[in-house]
């Protein structure tokens, strides 16, 4: 089949799935690279890009093997779309998972948990977490937001919350209820200056307290808990992954090469640990001219040089001066630009 523009995405998805199934079932092609056939664990089509994630048993023995594998897929999936291929290596994961599952705990009254992560700080991860929480709430869900950025908690400022939380008779912390969201952050409990010097066991125990010693369902069961994680890939992420069943991760990055390079590291960590990544949000990507509506990129114009994430882009959000002001003033206002991302995911 030639390079046909497919209007019907569902048909296209089925066609791609079938073609990949054919590659793995009708030929011995995969045996060159793996002991067991890979499985296609995720396929998404967004903005003229096809994203495929394969579950493979072992990492490729060399880059050449990987290139050869991808060239074959590329030849068969012959559409006029960019093809991005990612991998989840599951050899190590079941061992880890088994250990993890034994220690994984539920947060009482919380249905689903999503992490918001970034490679670098300052890319708008906390802002995005709040926007996601507000957007999901607008969709009719009961939502909680946990600021797990132990080293730099910012939820007090973002939501204009400066009161200390109450405790229940059995000494559980009651989340602050604001604009219908259940909020919790270390910044509600200690001053931000104190939190920044916490490391190692202290940070870990603070995290456990925020997860399990908070009565998250105090104001009613939560459909979703959004967890804003610290930048990078550190102990807090590993603890969260070990402690909780994570339903999905949303990465946030700005378009600069340096930010994307770090976002790729975060992506690779979650993929390796078999944590589903829903996609990424490109934040502060451009400014819109108030006079002529022209979109001016802020950080770079040469997209060819941009390092590529192998996960779907959920939205490209402009720099919104009023949003920045709202964040500084603790106004919890939902911006439609973030709803685009939310509608893609949920
Ligand atoms: P991070 O959590 O990644 O460190 P923050 O969410 O604290 O980043 O955002 C850093 C700064 O950028 C804040 O001043 C915030 O108001 C601002 N900001 C984030 N996203 C946007 C946006 N789309 N438009 C304008 N300002 C933004």
Q: Could you say which structural class the secondary elements and strand pairing correspond to?
A: alpha/beta
> In angstroms, what separates the terminal alpha carbons?
33 Å
Q: So what's the overall shape?
A: globular
List the strand order in the largest sheet: 6-7-5-8-4-9-10-13
Number of helices, counting only DSSP H or I runs of 4 residues or more: 12
Could you tell me which ligands this complex binds, including any ions or cofactors? adenosine-5'-diphosphate
* Helical content band: 25-40%
Strand composition percent: 15-25%
Instruction: Give the topology string: H per helix, E per strand.
Output: HEEHEHEHEHEEHHHEHEHEEEEHH
Description:
There is one protein chain. This protein has 346 residues and is of the alpha/beta class. It has two domains: 9-90, GMP Synthetase, Chain A, domain 3; 101-345, Rossmann fold, CATH 3.40.50. 37% of the residues lie in helices and 22% in strands. It has twelve helices and 13 strands. The protein has helices at residues 9-26, 63-76, 92-103, 125-138, 155-159, 186-189, 192-196, 200-212, 235-243, 257-272, 321-329, 336-345, and strands at residues 39-46, 49-56, 82-89, 110-118, 143-147, 176-178, 181-185, 222-228, 248-253, 277-282, 286-288, 295-297, 313-316. Helix 8 packs parallel to helix 9 (235-243). The chain is globular and about 65 Å long. 35% of the residues are buried. Mean pLDDT is 85; it is low at 92-96. Adenosine-5'-diphosphate binds at residues 118, 121-127, 154, 283-284, 317, 319-320, 323-324, 327.
